[in-house]
Amino acid sequence: MRLLVARCTVDYDGRLTAHLPEAKRLIMVKADGCVAIHADGGAYKPLNWMNAPNTLVEEEGRWVVTSKKGESLTITLHEVIWQSTTELGEDPGLTKDGVEAHLQELLAANTAALGDDLSLVRREFPTDIGPVDLLLRDGDGTAIAVEIKRRGEIDGVEQLTRYLERMDRDPMLRPVRGMFAAQVIKPQARVLAESRGIECVEVDYDELRGIESDVLKLF
């Protein structure tokens, strides 16, 4: 992780153009190549960013970040105030609470709750940035990555988007469908997910627990 506090201007050129006038900002460069520019406010959301994969070229007083699609982010450094580089190492990923962990277990055993003609390949399918909750296949053999949350919010959609990008690099998996499953999915998260071709499924935890209880009674 590389952090830089600098007085800078930022220009984006791609699907549209955008300009950030000169001000003090935090520039973050992650190990995967993602570059984000933050103000001292606005919670976690950056003012502008460029997701990986991209190319970062450092010139005298200027950084130019270019995506594979030809988009560019030009950061002009007027004054470097502070900078630091730290190796964070491999992240163990988000530890799920009891309900989310149990939801994953229940849905792995009852894939019909997510849709017709689905079969489980593996729980906690590994990617190089962390495990996706479930890997399924549909009747046509298409891979489906499922991220499960107790409450479906935008962060969960972003997490699944990152997993899909990594999984689509595997020729044995691509194209990979995305599915976002939760007890309740917030409207903003649903809009974002559907704009990215990710299917949203709300599941009834109590109903799934009832199915589990019936199975235990039978056996």
Question: Would you kindly provide a brief summary of this structure?
Answer:
By secondary structure, the protein is α+β, with helices and mostly antiparallel strands. The chain contains four helices and twelve strands.
What does this structure look like?
The chain is an alpha+beta fold. The chain folds into two domains: 2-85, Protein Yojf, Chain: A (Distorted Sandwich), CATH 2.70.180; 98-218, 3-Layer(aba) Sandwich (Trna Endonuclease, Chain: A, domain 1). It is built from four helices and twelve strands. The chain has helices at 98-109, 154-167, 187-195, 205-218, and strands spanning 2-13, 17-29, 35-38, 48-50, 54-59, 62-67, 72-85, 119-127, 130-137, 143-152, 176-185, 198-202. The longest helix is centred in the last third of the chain and has 14 residues, at 154-167. It is elongated, with a radius of gyration of 21 Å. The N and C termini lie far apart (52 Å).
